[in-house]
Design goal:
single chain, mainly alpha, 2 helices, extended
């Protein structure tokens, strides 16, 4: 394993380059993985995206 020290700006740029190099499917997999970690940390049991809606009055 290689460790590279970077400034915060360089790290953010590297993160953005990596994100842009991923396919949409890889991005969704990563987001789902992060959601799973979050819910595990918060001791919540949720699967899939939460449904959200609102009613907008048309003029």
């Amino acid at each position: 394993m290689t460790v590279v020290k970077r400034s915060i700006e360089e790290a953010e740029e590297a993160d953005l380059r990596e994100w842009k190099s991923m396919t949409p499917a890889e991005r969704l997999d990563l987001v789902q993985h992060l959601r799973d970690l979050y819910y595990e940390f918060k001791n919540e049991d949720r699967k899939g995206f939460q449904r959200v809606y609102r009613i907008v009055k048309q003029q």
